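pasting for the record
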Amino acid sequence: MKPDDELAQANVEPQKLRKFFDEEFPQFGALIDDEEITRVATKQVSRLPSFRSVGPRLNMGDRTIVLGDAAHTVKPYYG
């Protein structure tokens, strides 16, 4: 979801989140009980921190290679 998506906001109506799961992921909707849907729908918005590289150069001339965990925009220890 994009940050400005209605379902990415805090305190979404649980029925809207349930409808989303039922329409987009019908195979999983039955696995999520109403209590969990309500808990997720009414949670506060959370944001991941932003990261900047302060390490060595990531390029050599006009060539760049990024391997493994360095290719992630989110550090692996953030889950």
